[in-house]
Amino acid sequence: MAVGHSGDPARWQVGLEELLGRVAGRFGRVEPRRRARAFVLGLLAELPRKNCWTIAEHAGDPSPDGMQHLLARAVWDEDGVRDDVRDYLIEHLGDPGAVLVVDETGDLKKGTQTVGVQRQYTGTAGRIENAQVAVYLVYATDAGHA
Fold first, then answer.
1. What is the pLDDT of residues 28-66, one digit of tens each?
2. Fewest 10 Å CB contacts: which of 3, 48, 77, 101?
3. Cα–Cα–Cα angle for 65, 22, 86, rounded to 5 degrees
4. What does DSSP say about strands 144-145 and 127-141: parallel, antiparallel, or unpaired?
5. Which of the 8 DSSP states describes residue 26?
6. Residue 72's closest CA among 109, 115, 111, 108?
7. Mean pLDDT, to the nearest integer, of 123-142?
8. How many angstroms from the chain centroid is the CA of residue 78?
């Protein structure tokens, strides 16, 4: 997780399994834990688009229902997972010289079907357009970023 796409895949897969093992207890049932693993693998996959449909297809599911259930209704300790991920990153990347990089970016959209799309100002276009605006936060050190 802490290694970018250019990192050794075997190395990041070991780290991912370690992290998933750490958060396993935050899920009361095995099904949402397995689905969360599949969801994270889908997010890390080289998919042309990442949404519940494409991530579900990547996981071998016939529909996005399970992924949507995980994100909207499944019972799991989201705050605990957040804390475990933070602790994992500090252990592996913790550095007093680290910086937080904030990037607000707008993705132009032709239609209005994507979540969060509306007519709004985006620096990408330099004007008001149909766009989806996202804010990314990266913890960056000499050892890597997350």
1. 999 999 999 999 999 989 999 889 999 999 999 999 999
2. 48
3. 90
4. antiparallel
5. G
6. 115
7. 89
8. 13
- Tokens, residue 38: 């599949």
Please name the amino acid found at residue 44.
L
Q: What length is written for the chain?
A: 146
Answer whether residue 2 shows pLDDT above 70: no
Angle at 69 between CA 110 and CA 35, to 5 degrees: 100
Interval 60-89 mean pLDDT: 95
The pairing of beta strand 118-122 with beta strand 99-108: unpaired
Amino acid at 139: Y
Greatest Cα-to-Cα distance within the chain, rounded to the nearest angstrom: 47
**Is 34 exposed, middle or buried, given 0-12, 13-18 or 19+ CB atoms closer than 10 A?**
middle
